[in-house]
Amino acid sequence: MSMPIVIGIGGIAGWKILQRSEARQIQSIAKDPVVQRSTTYFRENIARATKAEELVKDYRLLSTALSAFGLEGDIANKAFIRKVLESDPADKKSLVNRLADKRYLRLAEAFGYGGAKPREGLADTVGQAFVQREYERRVGEGDETMRLALNARRELGQLAGRSSSDRTLWFEVLGNPPLRKVFEGAFGFSESYGRLPIDRQVEEFTRASERILGSASFKDLTQPQTVDRLVQNYMSRSQLTVSPVPNRYSAALTLLSGG
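The structure assignment produced for this chain is given below.
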């Protein structure tokens, strides 16, 4: 069983501590025997999976592949994942391009079963992404808000330099549940916003982004300082929704304060 990464303090203070220890934690996870077995198996066997069907049939290969793209929850949906992998990323009408969550598109593009060639250095790319996601998963076992913040920072980094329109990228944010949750938290939005018509959702998110982050353009939103502002807003608001945990000093403090 893997050990969770526990910071011991939440909010912005915990986020800053996490950032300072991040490089060391990732190096440690990369050396973890369980992680190494997964990445080594993938490296040594992925060349044999020349078709999507062969990848999906190999549980260990599929598990590592999906985890590297944050899609480990789909491990049982083999028929669906096979269709995703066989979709042509270049065809705008293909299944993978019709899915709102673009993590599936990245998966299909990386493996290249549906038309394009597999990404160069696929084993290295998947191995590094797997380690990063494992780090985020272990952080999440200690504090889920920290995991979501790490995910948002990484996802926004991947949007940097994209030629897509801001409107298209906002649709991607709204279609990516973990990333969307950080924006919702930072903006103080409830989940009820998800029941609005999609065009209205984009309008509400862009207005809030301009008001709180100073811009709704992804040229600005993917800048490190803006990402940090987003995360800090998210962490601050998240702390306000968490009830204080009673401890053995609570009663004494209540008495001393006259409560």
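Interim note for the steering committee: Residues 243-259 have pLDDT under 50 and may be disordered. The radius of gyration is 20 Å.
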